[in-house]
Amino acid sequence: MTFVLGITGGIATGKSTADKFFSERNIPLIDADIIAREVVEPGTAGLSKIAVEFGKEILTEEGRLNRKKLGSIVFNDKKKLERLNYLLKEELFHAIGEKIKEAEKKKPLLIVVDVPLMYEENYHQLMDAVMVIYVPERIQLKRLMERDGLNEEAAGQRIKSQMPIEEKKHLADIVIDNSYSVENTYRQLESWLQEHFPEVWKGN
């Protein structure tokens, strides 16, 4: 039977590091961020809903979603961000569920599903366990400022638009501390994989 492991965290806490770890070991990975882009491609119901709600100025000349413009709107207004998530919730939930079913057909021992809004939108109900990639908020803020070239206020707004990382840590079945080096994070992930899925670990 396939075990579905959910991965989440906060913005700039390092989910992509965990994704890379599992991908390098040929473990099936479903990335909600990729699916979120797919459900707002030109011609989709998702993009149409966004354009109606936020105006056609959030579209490029080619009719694609201008993510930077939309981000500047929703990350400065919590209610607008909640509205955006609500508009896409049905499409995303269905698409992620279908991706999991599709991956399960090949009967792997383990599937990894990366969903940023795991707890906020109740995706944890689709998972057998949830792993939170954790760093303290002060490190999260510093990394986000460096990664995206944001000032402290703008970075803080983006972090506050999500569930606090400490709350996610409390809810998690597994916590991986990504405060230190990539090698340190990999050792924690390796230890978890070896303990819970030795067959998968040996195959890598």
From TrEMBL:
Protein's UniProt keywords contain Nucleotide-binding: yes
A single GO BP: coenzyme A biosynthetic process
InterPro entries per UniProt: Depp_CoAkinase (IPR001977), P-loop_NTPase (IPR027417)
The keyword Iron-sulfur belongs to this UniProt entry's keyword annotation: no
Substrates-to-products reaction catalysed: 3'-dephospho-CoA + ATP = ADP + CoA + H(+)
Function: Catalyzes the phosphorylation of the 3'-hydroxyl group of dephosphocoenzyme A to form coenzyme A.
NCBIfam families in the record: dephospho-CoA kinase (TIGR00152)
Protein's UniProt name: Dephospho-CoA kinase
Organism from which the protein derives: Vagococcus elongatus
Gene this protein is translated from: coaE
